[in-house]
Write a structure and sequence with these properties.
This protein has 343 residues and is of the alpha+beta class. Helices cover 31% and strands 21% of the residues. It starts with 7 loop residues before the first strand and ends in a 6-residue tail after the last helix. Bound molecules: flavin-adenine dinucleotide (FAD) and iron/sulfur cluster.
Length: 343
């Protein structure tokens, strides 16, 4: 049986109290939201905090709302402690950002989604077949760069860690151009999720030790003169539980005649950051999202720049071959879900 190492545990009763604790303990503290990833990682000895700060009682970090800047548009504001179960079935999420509901539904299995939160998913640690193992297993190989060792088992002679971003909702939130509200005792800041991740598998987030993620904001869809669509597709070993071997999110707008006028495609589970595929809007413009020939061209484009590594379970060459298949599925999932509707 795997045992937890000793640590102090505190459950702050307000966000300010949590921020005070983070300011005091910094890198010696570990935040825990639903705990579905923190707990196994603690047991594997990947984290050795002096203090664990539980966010479960912070009701002010929960909930889904539309915040209106004017009569027409509304930003979807989701508290970081909102569970994935709530998100996948919430009428405002389904209406405003159907692809996000799909991505939340694709995370793990029902039990993890009951506990797991959007904040925990956005801030999920990167994964690698050589690191998500017991201490005993890792020790037998001399550990690795990410924790306790000096070599990488994925890239021979590699000087940096290439563990992969494996969080389903991050791919979709990048496609939707979401922003994150980050708080510390020093104040609050807003960052585009596309700028939040950095190419460092050891810690892939631009988050200071005294900061926490408070809210995720998805911009208003287009309701006049056209429509906004979003869809998610995931390659995994089984239809439930498993992390992505490939994660693909598509978001696009159409004009009044139903032709695509803007499109974004993001591929993840290949490197430490989700990857925005360039040139997709230009290729897609004027086309139809259910035109299989167009989707094949978009898939080919994504495949050209997608080079999976052996850091994730599953043959890397096969995962690359699957890129066009899952690009097509993401666009078709968006069409099947229907356009975002005003709420
Ligand atoms: C069997 C199994 C299968 C899984 N499959 C998937 C999968 O398919 N896809 C997937 O994406 N995930 C998967 N997961 C991982 C996990 O369940 C989800 O990613 C979940 O969303 C994590 O949320 P949480 O609230 O439990 O996070 P926690 O485990 O509590 O935290 C995760 C990380 O985020 C940090 N954190 C949490 N909240 C905040 C915050 N507000 N501000 C700053 N940092 C914060 C924590 O410090 C920690 O580093 C799986 C887990 C298990 C056990
Ligand atoms: S990519 Fe290399 S350094 Fe990073 S976790 Fe895997 S084996 Fe370790």
């Amino acid at each position: 049986m795997l045992r937890l190492q000793p640590f102090d545990f505190v459950k702050p009763q307000s966000v300010d109290e949590a921020l005070g604790l983070l300011a005091k303990h910094g890198r010696n503290a570990k935040l825990i939201a639903g705990g579905t990833d923190v707990m196994p990682n603690l047991k594997h000895g990947l984290y050795q905090p002096e203090i664990v700060i539980g966010l479960a009682d912070l009701a002010e970090l929960r909930g889904v709302a539309i915040e209106r800047d004017n009569q027409e548009d509304g930003t979807l504001a989701i508290g970081a402690m909102t569970t994935l179960e709530e998100i996948e079935s919430h009428p405002l999420v389904i209406a405003h950002a159907p692809g996000l509901a799909q991505a939340a539904h694709a995370v793990a299995g029902p039990t993890q989604r009951t506990m797991g939160t959007l904040g925990g998913n956005v801030c999920l640690d990167t994964r690698c077949v050589w690191i998500n193992q017991t201490h005993f297993w890792r020790k037998s190989l001399g550990f690795c760069l990410k924790k306790d060792g000096t070599a990488c088992h994925v890239v021979e002679g590699g000087k940096s860690c290439v563990a992969a971003a494996s969080n389903d909702t991050a791919t979709m939130l990048c496609a939707l151009d979401a922003t994150l509200v980050i708080r510390s005792a020093r104040g609050a800041r807003t960052v585009a999720i596309r700028d939040f991740y950095k190419p460092d598998g050891i810690f892939n987030q631009r988050l200071e030790p005294d900061e926490l993620l408070a809210q995720v904001r998805v911009p208003a869809p287009r309701f006049t003169g056209g429509a906004t669509w979003s869809g998610y597709a995931k390659l995994r070993a089984r239809a439930s539980i498993d992390f992505p071997k490939l994660s693909v999110a598509a978001a696009f707008t159409t004009d009044a005649a139903g032709a695509i006028d803007d499109a974004t495609l993001v591929v993840s589970a290949i490197a430490a950051t989700p990857r925005l595929i360039s040139g997709i809007a230009e290729l897609a413009r004027g086309g139809r999202a259910d035109d299989l020939a167009l989707l094949a061209r978009l898939g080919e484009r994504a495949q050209k720049v997608t080079v999976p590594l052996t850091n994730i379970d599953g043959d890397a060459a096969w995962r690359r071959q699957m890129v066009p298949v899952f690009v097509k599925r993401a666009f078709l999932a968006a069409k099947a879900a229907g356009a975002a509707t005003a709420v």
